[in-house]
Amino acid sequence: MITSLSDKVVLNNGIEMPGFGLGVYKVDEGDTVIRAVRTAVEVGYRSIDTASFYNNERGVGQGVRESGIPREEIFITSKVWNDEQGYESTLRAFEQSIEKLGLDYLDLYLVHWPVSGKYIETYLALEKLYKEGRVRAIGVSNFHVHHLESLLKDCSVKPVINQVEYHPHLTQKELKNYCERENIQLESWSPLKRGKLLTEPTLIEVGQKYGKSPAQVILRWNIQHNVITIPKSTSAERIKENATIFDFVLSDEDMKKIDSLNINDRSGSNPDDF
User: By three-state DSSP, how is residue 231 classified?
Assistant: First the structure.
């Protein structure tokens, strides 16, 4: 169980990753992302999740440097985008990401989506980077069970993470159970369903019981399900509020109540149709 902002999860290769972090999808490059990263680090976040597709890797790197916290204390994730996939092109994409971030290595590098006919060779390129010590851990994003089953037949390094859309309207039980069996850590993007869950009556009601916002209830629910969580925000106030979820515990009854909100509804694309 993740019990504080500084708590870490041990991944299947022995690397420790913070259980809670900042996502920067759709955060503008430049001052906006620099400020968001700096604020998050000041609050106590030690994990930042970006991607080449987000076009803000330079700002993320700058924000980390300006935070004054030693590089080795901050866990940085990036991802290879779909039009960069393939063995050699993935290796080139990695070099571009590292250059933009201004780093010598990445803590975690992910295959962003399972591009049909490409994702296995893309992952094999990640294995090369991992074996060379350029990345501390490798994994995938938006993979269904069948993608993982296919990948596990061909890879020599098991993915440490599967980062997927996960929230009370999309609990992905089969996928979560599979990842737990295979010791692949589930990580949640869009935990608030891009804001669409904040008016859900059940979440408002549960929040009132604990003196918390619906967002804090959702993030706490994620954490209590042992899912690494990376809410996105550019507001200093919201970045702080999102992290204030370690001073209360949802009861088993309330956890089940939130579980029952599942309607298998996505705010993003289905990986099979993307």
Answer: coil
Radius of gyration over every alpha carbon of the chain, rounded to an integer in angstroms = 18
First to last CA, the chain: 33
169 is in an annotated binding site: no
Number of domains in the chain: 1
Kindly report, residue by residue over 191-220, the tens digit of the pLDDT: 999 999 999 999 999 999 999 999 999 999
80: alpha, beta or left? (left if phi > 0; alpha if psi -120 to 50): beta
**Is residue 184 one of the residues assigned to a domain?**
yes
Q: Look at residue 43 and tell me if it is in a domain.
A: yes
Share of the chain above pLDDT 90, in %: 96
In this predicted structure, what is the pLDDT of residue 206? 98
Residue 134 lies in a domain: yes
CATH at 43:
3.20.20.100
Residue 45 annotated to the active site = no
Q: Which of 45, 54, 123, 130 is catalytic?
A: 54
Query: Considering the domain boundaries, does residue 272 fall inside one?
Result: no
Beta bridge partners of 20: 229
pTM for the full model?
0.97
